[in-house]
Amino acid sequence: MTTPTIELKPSSHPLSDAEREAILTDPGFGRHFTDHMVTIKWTEGRGWHDAELVPYAPLSIDPANMTLHYAQEIFEGLKAYRRPDGSVVTFRPDANARRFQASARRLAMPELPVELFIGACDALVQQDKAWVPEHGGESSLYLRPFMIAAEVGLGVRPANEYLFIVIASPAGAYFPGGVEPVSIWLSEDRVRAVPGGMGDAKTGGNYAASLLAQAEAATHGCAQVAYLDAVEHRWVEELGGMNLYFVYEDHIVTPALTGSLLAGITRDSLLRLAEDLGHPSREGRISIEQWRADTESGALKEVFACGTAAVITPVGTVKTKDGEWEQSGGEPGEVTMKLRKALLDIQTGRAEDVHGWTHELG
Ligand SMILES: *Cc1c(COP(=O)(O)O)cnc(C)c1O
């Protein structure tokens, strides 16, 4: 089966420059979408076909579409940034493409070739380049590739037809008023993923599993939930959509990939970037008892969360059912902010990219 090329069928009535500029002055997150999308179909026996860039539009879905009933769905998230010279780059799209393949394997879906994933993202960004915010600040064009089962029927088995789509949404700075620490609720009862489950796949099902704890966090005045392992309810895993890092005096540590947490690309980039900046970094295991004790003894200096959307978010207050404590006096930590700037500088083209992470549109 051959890899299809993406046929360009652009809109004859994209938004006017004035309308687009009005949106770009305050895009928020995930509220507005660009003029186009890329769609690619997969059918058993035929493989990937009908790859096209078309005007952004609603899908027509049969009520018995399998995704609606059994949640065979996976997604990705990556950003395109405008560099100082006006050119546009994406950050490590090959890593997203490979993770998308791993998620597909876990959900018994077909694997999209890496080149086709990157090609689809490139085609959309190229077509809707005017939607990539100006250089400066932290604004970007957020890309959301995803795949759903396209077969109709209520029989329970992997579908024999799929639809891959990429849409794009301009994103303003995550912290328009300056970086602010996030408050965290430590969920000791509810888990988001279990050993042997799909916690290491990027799938909507994991988010559905996390929403109730997220709502509980809000009743405790917290913005995010930290999940613990599902067996001992003791080992820190990650937030609902971000990985965690613990900053000690002489090293930084992030929870090891046990299979029930997601292998964040930001997490992976920071393991390497921290070393470049003189902070030995490693993967390890942190219990809630240790988290609290090391904060109280002063050994644990800072904690931060990381992911594509917010890049790096400092952790401020941590609440559990037995009490609460504050990280670094509730202020963004020094190492946290240094790493945040270093990563953003590479992503936005202000600093040299020695790792070859940024991808120019093909
Ligand atoms: C997407 C995601 C992350 C962050 O991954 P990045 O590649 O850094 O954006 C972390 N945890 C979960 C559950 C996620 O879905």
Give an account of the 3D structure.
Its EC number is 2.6.1.42. Keywords: Amino-acid biosynthesis, Aminotransferase, Branched-chain amino acid biosynthesis, Pyridoxal phosphate, Transferase. Its cofactor is pyridoxal 5'-phosphate. Belongs to the class-IV pyridoxal-phosphate-dependent aminotransferase family. GO terms for molecular function: branched-chain-amino-acid transaminase activity. The chain is α+β, with helices and mostly antiparallel strands and 362 residues long. It has 2 domains: 7-172, Aminotransferase class 4, branched-chain amino acid transferase, N-terminal domain (D-amino Acid Aminotransferase, Chain A, domain 1); 182-347, D-amino Acid Aminotransferase, subunit A, domain 2 (D-amino Acid Aminotransferase, Chain A, domain 2), CATH 3.20.10.10. Helices cover 26% and strands 29% of the residues. The chain contains 8 helices and 18 strands. It has helices at residues 17-25, 66-70, 93-106, 114-127, 204-219, 265-276, 288-297, 334-347, and strands at 7-8, 36-43, 47-55, 73-75, 78-82, 88-91, 140-149, 161-171, 182-187, 224-228, 236-239, 243-248, 252-255, 281-284, 300-307, 311-320, 323-326, 358-360. The strands form 2 sheets. Strands 1, 2, 3, 4, 5, 6, 7, 8 and 18 form a 9-stranded mixed β-sheet that branches. Strands 9, 10, 11, 12, 13, 14, 15, 16 and 17 form a 9-stranded mixed β-sheet that branches. The two termini are 23 Å apart. Pyridoxal-5'-phosphate (PLP) is lined by residues 77, 202, 206, 238, 241-243, 262, 264-267, 307-308.
